[in-house]
Structures are given as structure tokens and as C-alpha cells.
Amino acid sequence: AWIWFNAMLQSEHNYHSLIYEGWKPERARGTLVNDAKTELVITASLEEWRHIFRQRADTHADESMQWIMVPLLASFQKKIPILFDDL
To answer: Which of 15, 33, 56, 59 could staple 69 via S-S, CB 3.0–4.6 A?
Structure first.
């Protein structure tokens, strides 16, 4: 567990060092490992959200994507049940 944790810290350090050196974020991102933190910003219509949830909250989707999308879908279902309860 410590090996993984240290690898994450080193990856983040390398990324920030490259940004400090003037690299663009999209280029420096190549140093980040798959387990690094990612922030998503998604703007979509309700119809597009339904499509996203069908793809990413499904049991066949990547597990890490399900960790994000299943709770988000539950939030949509709570706020707009008539549009999302069938998913």
C-alpha cells in the first residue's frame, strides 16, 4: 500500500513540476498514472445525461467509472425522478 501511495505522490509531483516549468496541462498529464485523481466537468442536456448514465453506470462499465456515475445517477433520480427512475 505504501508503494502505491508513494507512486501517486511522485506522479503528482512530476505533473506539478512540469506545469511550473511551463508545460501545458494536457501535455504534462502524460506523466500521471491511471490511478491519479481526475476531475470531470460535464455539461449535457437531460437526454445526453440519460445516455451517459446508460453507458457509464451500467454493470458492464469500467468499475472506476461506476464508482462515480452510480452515486451521481442516484442524485439525478432523487432530484428528477420522472426522467431518471427507469435507469
So the answer is: 56
Task: Look up residue 53 and give its amino acid.
Answer: F
Q: Are 71 and 37 in contact (CB under 8 A)?
A: no
Apex 66 CA angle, 11 and 28, nearest 5: 25
H-helix or E-strand spanning residue 9: helix 2-20
Count of CB atoms situated within 10 Å of the CB of 49: 18
Instruction: Please state the three-class secondary structure of 23-86 as a single string.
Output: CCHHHHHHHCCCCCCCCCCCCCCHHHHHHHHHHHCCCCCCHHHHHHHHHHHHHHHHHCHHHHCC
Q: Please tell me the distance from the alpha carbon of residue 27 to that of residue 50, in angstroms, as a whole number.
A: 32
